[in-house]
Automatic annotation (TrEMBL):
GO terms for molecular function: hypoxanthine phosphoribosyltransferase activity; magnesium ion binding. Signal peptide: none annotated. InterPro entries: HGPRT, PRTase-like, PRTase_dom. Gene3D superfamilies: 3.40.50.2020. Keywords: Glycosyltransferase, Transferase. It catalyses: GMP + diphosphate = guanine + 5-phospho-alpha-D-ribose 1-diphosphate; IMP + diphosphate = hypoxanthine + 5-phospho-alpha-D-ribose 1-diphosphate. The keyword Glycosyltransferase applies. It comes from the Bacteria. This is Hypoxanthine phosphoribosyltransferase. Pfam families: Pribosyltran. One of its GO terms (cellular component) is cytosol. Residues 14-165 form the Phosphoribosyltransferase domain. GO terms for biological process: GMP salvage; guanine salvage; hypoxanthine metabolic process; IMP salvage.
Amino acid sequence: MNIETVNQTLSEADCLYDQQQVEAALDKMAAAMTQVLKNSDPLVLCVLTGAIIPAGHLLTRLNFPMQIDYIHATRYAGETSGGELNWQVRPSHPLAGRNILIIDDILDEGITLDAIMAHCRAEGASEVYSAVLVEKQHDRKNGLQADFVGLRTDDRYLFGYGMDYKGYLRNAPGIYAVKGL
Ligand SMILES: O=P(O)(O)OC[C@H]1O[C@H](OP(=O)(O)OP(=O)(O)O)[C@H](O)[C@@H]1O
Ligand code: HPA
């Protein structure tokens, strides 16, 4: 996309949740996560690239001991429909015996989260929890539910707070739906 198209996409998009609404959802998520995870010494796995922004916002709201790592898995690669999951970086910490918290920006069809959870379990993780800022509502999901969900949206193509449209607009300060998608 050229810069004009990026700017036009943003100006034409529907804002589904503004920054204040997202921040309030992050507060609620963090409170729920604290209740469950505060004594579990979790290893947090941020799923790059999209989790960069929600993880940053969430983790400073969690005031208990944890370690933080990242993984890089992608199956959209700048497209608006997903393909095969492609692992770019696996976790560098050993997962055996650890309580794991996976943080991602969005649960759409659930394939990414399912594969990452399966990987953690295969490596011998104890409990595996998942937190997503957004869960999309549609009937193409694989049945997986995240333990902590910030916001729910209709079945539109989204960007902002970590989610990209064609590689851009992850930094948009709200949750937006692309016009016509
Ligand atoms: O539930 P699913 O249908 O599997 O989709 C969700 C995944 O898609 C996005 O990642 P993407 O592959 O676009 O990589 P990115 O994190 O670099 O944006 C998003 O960050 C989730 O990881
Ligand atoms: O709607 C979306 N937007 C951005 N990234 C995504 N990955 C899965 N669904 C989406």
